[in-house]
Design a protein that fits this description.
Radius of gyration: 25 Å
Number of domains: 2
Number of helices: 5
Oligomer: single chain
CATH topology of the largest domain: Alpha-Beta Plaits
Strand order of the largest sheet: 2-3-1-4-5
Largest sheet: 5 strands, antiparallel
CATH architecture of the largest domain: 2-Layer Sandwich
Shape: rod-shaped
Number of strands: 5
Low-confidence stretches: none
Strand content: 15-25%
Amino acid sequence: MSDEIAVVSSFSDDEECADAIRALHQAQVHEFRAFSPFPSEKIIEASQHARGQGRSLVRFWVLAGGITGILTAIAITFGTSWEWNLYTGGKPVASTPPYIIIMFELMILIGGLSGLTGFFFHSRLPVFEPEDGYRSRFAADKFGLVVRCGEGDVSKVESILRDAGAEDLQRETIISGGVVHQH
């Protein structure tokens, strides 16, 4: 049985970390996680490019929520009018123009809430336990890159990270999601 190895590297600035992500992408290594003390546009762009991610999928959550909101408003407004028929001066029981306001409001409300849910889902938030390989210095002054690979690829990954400017490299053996041994 070959264990999975996590190579933990730290960088002094975000440009070096982004260069390492690009180099990993060129070497066809895509199992990594980047940590930074502040949101870095360079790291985000390099990560999205390396993983082949384009635009965010949250927009589909918002679309589904908006459609659900409109359908819910139609069901509530027309259903309520037809259930309790209130005839007033020969006007229709279900009149569409006043219901458009309710449809719009529910579309915005449910679309916004589902967009927020999609954001949390795709961002993998909240994080209750730190990721494997996370170091507290990644939240203070260093940029971190944790690359998961097989035992045979460790030397290649370490070489790529050193060439990109990694200050510190450490290996961790991982078995079923938990760190077993640090090298």
